[in-house]
Amino acid sequence: MLFRPPWRKIEDIGEYAETLGFEEESYLDLFQAVMELDKKYRVPVLLFYYERYSTAEIASILKIPEKTVSTRLFRAKAKLKNYLKEE
Questions:
Q1: Is residue 72 included in any domain, yes or no?
Q2: Which helix or strand (DSSP H or E) is residue 69 part of?
Q3: Where would I find the RNA polymerase sigma factor 70 region 4 type domain in this sequence (predicted)?
Q4: What's the domain count of the chain?
Q5: Is 23 helix (H, G, I), strand (E, B) or coil?
Q6: Which of 31, 58, 67, 82 has its CB surrounded by the most CB atoms within 10 Å?
Q7: Spatial CA neighbour of 61 closest among 38, 42, 41, 44
Q8: What is the DSSP string of 34-65?
Q9: In a domain, 6, yes or no
Q10: Taking Cα atoms as reference points, which of 32, 21, 39 lies closest to residue 87?
Q11: Cα 83 from chain centroid (whole Å)
Q12: In a domain, 5, yes or no
C-alpha cells in the first residue's frame, strides 16, 4: 500500500509553483487563479488536482464531509471559469 506524505505547508507560493514545474504559461495562469480563490476553495483544489488526493482523503485531512469537498470543488471550478473568462 502506498502512503502519501502528510500535507506540507509551503509559505512561499512561488516556491510551490516551482515544485509543480509548469510546462506551459497557461498552466501557470490557471495556478495563479487558483491561488486567488478563498482558502476554503483553494485548499481542496490544490489537494485534489495538484497533489492527487481523493475526495475521501481530503475530507479526512480537512475534517469535513466528503460531500462538502465535492461541493467546494464544483464551486471552485465555476469561480475559476468565470475568473478566466474575464481575463
A1: yes
A2: helix 66-86
A3: 30-80
A4: 1
A5: coil
A6: 58
A7: 44
A8: HHTS-HHHHHHHIIIIIS---HHHHHHHHTS-
A9: no
A10: 32
A11: 15
A12: no
Which residue has cell 502506498? Answer: 2
Amino acid, single-letter form, for residue 8: R
In whole angstroms, give the CA distance from residue 23 to residue 21.
6
By residue range, what is the domain housing residue 70? 43-87
**pLDDT per residue over 51-70, tens digit each?**
899 999 999 999 999 999 99
* Contact between residue 69 and residue 41 where contact means Cβ atoms under 8 Å apart: no
pLDDT in tens, 1-37: 445 555 454 445 555 556 656 566 667 788 889 999 9
- Measure Cα distances from 62 to 7, 15, 39 in Å: 10, 23, 12
Residue 18 located in a structural domain: no
